[in-house]
Amino acid sequence: MCTQSRRLIALSHAVLMVIGLLSVATFSQEQPPAKKKNQPTATPAKENEAPEEEQVLRVGTTQIVLNAIVTDGLEHHVAGLKPEHFNLFEDQAPQTIISFGMEQVPFVAAILLDLSGSMGNKMSLARAACARFADGIRVGDSIGIYSFSKDKVKLMQDFSEVKDIDPIVWDTDPDGETPLYDAIVTASEALGKREEQRRAILLISDGADTKSKATFEKAIRAASLANVMIYAVDMSEAAFGRGPAKDNGSTMLKDFALKTGGRFFPSPGGSQLRDAFVEAVDELRNQYTLVYESTNDKQDGKWRAIQLTAKNPTLKVRTRQGYYATKAEKK
Fold first, then answer.
1. Angle at which helices 216-225 and 248-260 cross, to 10°
2. Per-position DSSP letters for 88-149, written without gaps between them
3. CB within 8 A of 21, min separation 6: which ones?
4. Which of 259, 295, 310, 219 is nearest to 63 (CA)?
5. In the chain, at which end, N or C, are there fewer CB atoms within 10 A of the end residue's CB?
6. pLDDT attached to residue 45
7. Which H, E and C letters describe 181-209, residue by residue?
8. Cβ neighbours, 10 Å, residue 258
9. Cα separation of 7 and 5, whole Å?
10. pLDDT by residue (tens digit) across 96-126?
11. 298-313 confidence digits (pLDDT tens)
12. Is residue 31 part of a domain?
């Protein structure tokens, strides 16, 4: 072999060695370091994850959550307020707001449809009200439908984002008595297990309970515990002009709406009621959420009255009127 050939071979070997060394170095840079035994693995950040202050509100068991609607003189929603714009009292004692925010977030609602015998000639309007409310939900909102009659509360359509009403809701005939309080307790307990902060009950009834095992107080307690607002549609005889102006059923529905911070719809039909449903769905997304820790640490199970007002006297604030304190377990 000539000298020139040997030089070419030697040069080729040198080039190959350099390429090999470069490949090893590149491979080492691209590979992650070996994981040590029992070393925790870091959780990767989720795409588009919100900052910590924008995460779902979490509160302690002793803290009280209020969802509040603020409107001006024209009933328009008012945004942009801060904690210092409110006065908050519990049993007339001033309270300190420890968490505050206003975000458009999804809500969950349970529609309670009265199928008792007293609703016989009102079912077409009741079903139309049910459909109108369901038609207003958007992506992320969920609704479930319960019926109540005789001595039973029945889940007719489970919670979902589906706007279409199950045909069974339209095919059921009214019959029997009215376990209204039991229906509110059942729906409130179901809503209390949901992750959504905004929770509501749409109550479509003539308001006269005749069969419940639960009492009015227990129904309010269940709604309070689940932080549920009740929107009541008046199907009483008084609403149709066929009963006394101070119909007991109508009064009962007003009480539920007032104590929970919801709304009472006195009109049984027409454009006024349709518009009211649109407004109700809208305000469920546009609420202030406030958290405070009560200065009263007694576990006596008693009702605590809440008063939340805006310092600006031209603004109206609507929230629940109070809650039942936890009760210490007997030893």
1. 30
2. EEETTEE--EEEEEEEE--EEEEEEEE-SGGGGGGHHHHHHHHHHHHHT--TT-EEEEEEEE
3. none
4. 295
5. C
6. 39
7. HHHHHHHHHHHHCCCCCEEEEEEEECCCC
8. 16
9. 5
10. 999 999 878 889 999 999 999 989 888 888 8
11. 989 999 999 999 999 9
12. no
Sign of CA dihedral 168, 169, 173, 178: positive
Domain holding 223, by residue range, is 107-287
60 in any annotated domain: no
> Is 48 domain-assigned?
no
Residue 189: inside a domain: yes
Distance of CA 195 to the CA centre of its chain: 8
Could you tell me if 186 and 153 are in contact, meaning their C-beta atoms sit under 8 angstroms apart?
yes
Q: How much is the pTM? A: 0.77
Amino acid at 265: F
Q: Which residue has the tokens 């969950």?
A: 108
The CATH number of the domain holding residue 217 is 3.40.50.410
Encode pLDDT of 266-289 as tens digits: 876 667 777 777 888 888 888 999
Burial readout 216-225 (b: 16 or more C-beta within 10 A, e: otherwise): bebbbbbbbe
Q: List, for residues 198-240, the tens digit of each pLDDT value.
A: 999 999 998 889 999 999 999 999 999 999 999 998 888 777 7
Number of independent structural domains in the chain? 1
Band (246; pLDDT cuts 50, 70, 90) = low
Task: Please give the structure tokens belonging to residue 170.
Answer: 């339209």
Q: Strand, helix or coil at 47?
A: coil
**Is 152 in a helix, a strand, or coil?**
strand
Cα distances (angstroms) measured from residue 166 to each of 120, 130, 173: 20, 11, 15
Nearest to 206 by CA among 172, 242, 154, 171: 242
